[in-house]
């Protein structure tokens, strides 16, 4: 059975205190730290890149789950590998022509390859990457339009999660956008096991309680299936 992974999105943290915010989330029970890398082109927002990952890596051994919202993911593999990224999840919309090369390069740099899709992209676009002899190891289903934290969860994306879980029982399936106490049960019962949560965790008076609630929902759904 796939393990539940709760991944606070550091986009909602105080970037000026990133190392202590990361440590705080790990103390609160986080499994992964979700790092949103945006280039101001694939999405309208601009965030962090390899230099910040490299700085953070000096302060933590945690799994850094990097979500690349960039137009040229290939350009980021080498620098992020060197910086100490753990997971490298690119968008299918930005890698239609070079995903094979991308997956190979990500693995050769010791990172875990993942693929993400925007709300308007059908899951059929991912099957070649999952069926390849060198497959991606995680699928990130966006449950908001990528670019910003604090948006509203799109429940209609759960059909994608359900179909993927049915076809790939041991795949890491991650959901990202609008996840929190009021939406987690929809994602968990559809079969998601990796849960990204930004504003619901960082905005809570007791982040540890929210993280444990998210985990419990995934565990309970797994028991019932
Ligand atoms: C949005 C990012 C998310 C974002 C989630 O493009 O990929 O990781 O930080 O934030 P919340 O949980 O607030 O929707
Ligand atoms: Zn993200």
TrEMBL record:
Gene Ontology biological process terms, A to Z: carbohydrate metabolic process; pentose-phosphate shunt
Enzyme active site: 36, 176
Enzyme class: isomerase
EC number: 5.1.3.1
SUPFAM superfamilies cross-referenced by the UniProt entry: Ribulose-phoshate binding barrel
CC cofactor note: Binds 1 divalent metal cation per subunit.
Binding site for a divalent metal cation: 34, 36, 67, 176
Catalyzed chemical reaction(s): D-ribulose 5-phosphate = D-xylulose 5-phosphate
Cofactor section: Fe(2+); a divalent metal cation; Mn(2+); Zn(2+)
GO molecular function: D-ribulose-phosphate 3-epimerase activity; metal ion binding
InterPro entries: Aldolase_TIM, Ribul_P_3_epim, Ribul_P_3_epim-like, RibuloseP-bd_barrel
Residues reported in the UniProt entry to bind substrate: 9, 67, 147-150, 178, 198-199
UniProt keyword list: Carbohydrate metabolism, Cobalt, Isomerase, Manganese, Metal-binding, Zinc
Stored NCBIfam families: PRK05581.1-4, rpe
Family stated for the protein in its record: Belongs to the ribulose-phosphate 3-epimerase family.
Protein's recorded name: Ribulose-phosphate 3-epimerase
